[in-house]
Write a structure and sequence with these properties.
Layout (H helix, E strand, L loop, with lengths): L1 E6 L4 E4 L3 E5 L3 E7 L6 E7 L3 E7 L3
Length: about 60
């Protein structure tokens, strides 16, 4: 799955190979694999800093 995050300050982040997308009490968390590094990491975002997001299933 791919995830695009839009922040309140106008930045956009694109994550590839997203798994385990879950809501938390203050936002959401997910696992992703860095495209350049190939390293799998967990990310946690707070709803107050995110304007919106888009999820897309990859085929």
């Amino acid at each position: 799955m791919e995830l695009i995050l839009f922040t309140n300050n106008g930045q956009t982040y694109h994550f590839y190979d997203v798994t385990d997308f879950r809501p938390t009490t203050t936002g959401f968390s997910f696992m992703y694999t860095g495209k350049a590094t190939g390293v799998t990491r967990q990310a946690v975002f707070n709803n107050t800093s995110i304007a919106g997001y888009a999820l897309a299933e990859t085929i």
